[in-house]
Amino acid sequence: MSELRKIGALWHREVLRYWREKSRIISSLILPLLWLIVFGSGMRNVALPGVDNYQIFIFPGILGMTLLFTSVWSGVSIIWDREFGFLKEIMVAPVSRTSIVIGKALGSGTSALIQGFILLPLSFLIGIRLAPQSVLLLIPTMILLAIGLVCVGLLLASLMNSMEGFNFIMSLVIMPMFFTSGALFPISSAPGWLQIFSYFNPMTYGVDLLRWATTPGTATTLPVYTEALLLLGFAAAMIVACSYTFSIKK
Amino acid sequence: MLTATTMKQIYAIETFALTKRYGKILALDQLNLKIEPGEVFGLLGPNGAGKTTAISILCTVNSPTSGTALVNGFDIRKQAGKVRRSIGIVFQDPSIDDRLTGRENMMLHATLYDVPSSNAKKRIIELLNLVGLADRADSPMKTYSGGMRRRLELARGLLHSPEVLFLDEPTLGLDPQTRQHLWSYIEELAKQSNITVILTTHYMEEAERLCSRVGIIDSGRIKVVDTPANLIGALKGDVVTVVTSQPADFLARIKELNFAHNAEAVDSTIRLQLSDAEKKVPMIVELASANHIELKSVSIHKPTLNDVFLYYTGKEIRSEEAENKLRSTMRAIGRMR
Predict the structure, then answer these.
(1) ipTM for the whole complex
(2) Which CATH number fits domain B2-231: 3.40.50.720, 3.40.50.300, 3.10.350.10, 3.30.565.10?
């Protein structure tokens, strides 16, 4: 019970930090808008198999991208906590490492979700009519994806000594995850070697489920339940991996 | 539940051959320390002596290679959770979240240490009053000055009513005025409650003013433990400091004469401990001119904790303040020749 309160307190801290940085919230909306409006309308007439309207096609992809960037960034930002010393205050407190990881993941996940929700109304701009049940399906998908990705960020942070390695992570982890996830083109139209990467990329299932939720009736790469289970497995495995890494690290 | 165990214990902290090895470096070498409840204990030592290692092991953030310690009667190896709940820590480096307000930082700490929230609210106000930050409780930490942050950390360390408070270089990098303020808060705290305080410091003045006992640590070993007054008293007579360009030569000559209780050279400075220093200074000057050794300065002063420190570690403590004090006190004879 007391561990739950502690997780809650750590969650609250993350959300407060996010909420106080209004400029970051706004600036992080610019990139998805550019993709959606500029890139999306430019590619309008490109024919891709199974894609009627390119803007509608990439909307869930851009939603996924926003979650990816925000979540991994939030996870990696624990380096600031380490550099500015706050991590020490948490690490020396009578609270389990698992609670620290869960608090951080939930808090950062919440920030990523807020970011995602700000994007949702934009779907109307490009002609998507979101049904209430679509939103109900989007929420758990976004939560699982965000939690898993925050932990990816936390794991990466444990390998880094300073923020200087961030560009490396951007080009070696974040961008490849984005490009092979099927956010910008259907995986089925990619060459076989690229598809292999996609199947190992948890983002693929996240984006696929987001697409399935926003545009009902679209076919998914794997059966929906399999994808949902894979995403759940991804989030759970990442939390376990992070707790383990934190408990061995001092 | 805590009091049942503390009844039995005699010491607030007791270490048993506490040892920490980093590869080939022995950071702590069989450390044996006994600190009584209610004491303000100072751990003094040059950089890299093992002070911070000792503190971090006692706080259970670091684990010893061998040996163990009891903190409030709890074993640091087996009862880390109980140790953590019973201690407060102010780290050497800042450890607050600067996006949150003072009160929010305190509230987070209260939750992490299981302080019931109704209780916590009252206590936070009390403590913020103690450190003079009540009017700034709801300003974000980034608007606080260095000294204010330090005070908040002190208040935060006390929030869960710890029995032992660790202060690792509490006034490092603060201006003299802020340092004075912080000292009076710590003094007030030691007077009002029977909390045990363990502080590490570079500032001898700080140790002399605050500590009931000090332990001098060097290369991971405790050299001596006593009250500052006893330690200073044990250095007989006065301290004469001689600066010369040929320290090794001159030291040899002085040792031949055998009139100093203790003589040693650090860089170009020779430090002598002798009785009736005023009468012996002319002898020192004569000795130098007879041997054609150039003296840059000779000064006499009463022994301070700094001299005690030098006596046991043979190292100049890296503190601009302690050094200035040494140079400026009783500069008896200026440049010779």
Answers:
(1) 0.84
(2) 3.40.50.300
Size of interface A-B (CB pairs under 8 A): 63
pLDDT tens digits for range B17-75? 999 999 888 899 999 999 999 999 999 988 888 888 999 999 998 889 999 999 999 99
Residues of chain B contacting A88 with CB distance shorter than 8 Å? 61, 91, 93, 95
Q: In this complex, do B96 and A94 lie within 8 Å of one another by their Cβ atoms?
A: no
Contacts 24+ apart (CB under 8 A), B7-10: B8/B73, B9/B70, B9/B72, B9/B73, B10/B36
For residue A240, the tally of other CB atoms under 10 A from its CB is: 13
Residues of B within an 8 Å Cβ radius of A: 59-62, 81, 84-85, 89, 91, 93-100, 104, 107-109, 111-114, 140
Kindly report the pTM of this predicted structure: 0.80
Q: Where in chain B is the domain with CATH 3.40.50.300?
A: 2-231
Q: How far apart are CA B115 and CA A115, in angstroms?
A: 34
CA atoms within 13 A on the CB side of B76: 26
- Residue B190 carries which side chain, given as an amino acid letter? A
pLDDT tens profile B133-145: 999 999 999 999 8
